[in-house]
Amino acid sequence: MPTQQLTARQTSSRIDSAAVVVAAAGVAKIAAELARDAERDRRLAPEVVQSMLDAGFARHFVPRRHGGGSGTFEEIVRAVSVVGEGCTSAAWAASLTASLGRMAAYLPEEGQRRIWAGGPDALIVGALMPLGRARREEGGWRIGGTWPYVSVVDYADWALVCAMTTEDRPTARFFAVPRGDWRTEDTWSSVGMRGTGSNTLSVEGVFVPDELTFTRDAIAGGVAEGGDAPCHRVPLKAVNGLCFAAPVLGAARAALAAWREGTAPRHTSASGGLDSAAAVVLGRAAGEADAAALLLEAAARAADSGEVTAFDVARSGRDCALAAELATSAVDRLFASAGTRAHQDAAPLQRHWRDAHTASGHVVLAFSAAAESYARELHPPQPAN
């Protein structure tokens, strides 16, 4: 499948980061209209990705000195969930694009200037698992490796990939690689989230200068060089779940809308109200979606406060995983009550069901691990006597 480079807006003007929430509705509309094309092509249409850039997702967390918004997590959670009401794959892409823009702010200043030399809308993709190897050379590193599941890679300008160094004490580092220095393999074939185009990226013997690399410990601890806003000073684990759970919330809301349009009319009484069984389904599913939204927005506000403790990190992981479970449960409930019509290829509800399960299956949203981390903060292991 050919790759395609989009035209980013060439500007260094500062933006109102809250505008992305308003602009998200336009992205959702375009993404919904082209959702079936995305399913067929296993990647988003260029128009959808361009609308995402125009709305300000890529620049949302980019430092203001580079023309970005240094925005908040609450804004991005709301914006991503709105996009998810149109297409969960588009919401996933929007969320990751924003997240990777934040991660690039951990590069040395010279590297940041290079990434955003053409403006703050550079589309950056990434792979967090250290599946590559990096050998030290004068002035930089020689890297190679293969990373699966790199969403929206066909449209990327840059990729942030993680590799282990080959030093006596190996460390995990991120390396920024420009478009043209990697090879893409068409490997994405999934039951859900088909439009994310999460293909495999390979790099072989590419030299990366020192200004385009940083340690994984830096982003894990929330230590960004020249970080000018709270969004650049928050540990990754405090916000990583938000990135993946917000699209699932969008899927739940989309499922509610599809159910009300396609299923509710078949369960109305002569007076126009819903029958009792349908009312219970709607009430519980809507409540689950609303509860998921409250959990995510609370976690986002905690991250935006600039005062994130170890307990906040653990609670955020718990709440993001629980929110994804609640949102997926809402979709399950609606889909199970919708009858045979909802199983047709053309029925939006079956797409929302597949997408919610695929997205919530991400390892970051595993509730068991999140619950254990939370419990350890409340009841830390005691040293043996």
TrEMBL record:
UniProt-listed Gene3D superfamilies: Acyl-CoA dehydrogenase/oxidase, N-terminal domain, Butyryl-CoA Dehydrogenase, subunit A, domain 2, Butyryl-CoA Dehydrogenase, subunit A, domain 3
SUPFAM superfamilies linked to this entry: Acyl-CoA dehydrogenase C-terminal domain-like, Acyl-CoA dehydrogenase NM domain-like
Domain Acyl-CoA dehydrogenase/oxidase N-terminal: residue ranges: 29-113
Keyword annotations from UniProtKB, A to Z: Oxidoreductase
GO molecular function terms attached to this record: acyl-CoA dehydrogenase activity; flavin adenine dinucleotide binding
Superkingdom of the organism of origin: Bacteria
Name this polypeptide is given: Putative hydroxylase
Organism for this UniProt entry: Streptomyces vietnamensis
Source species taxonomy: Bacteria, Bacillati, Actinomycetota, Actinomycetes, Kitasatosporales
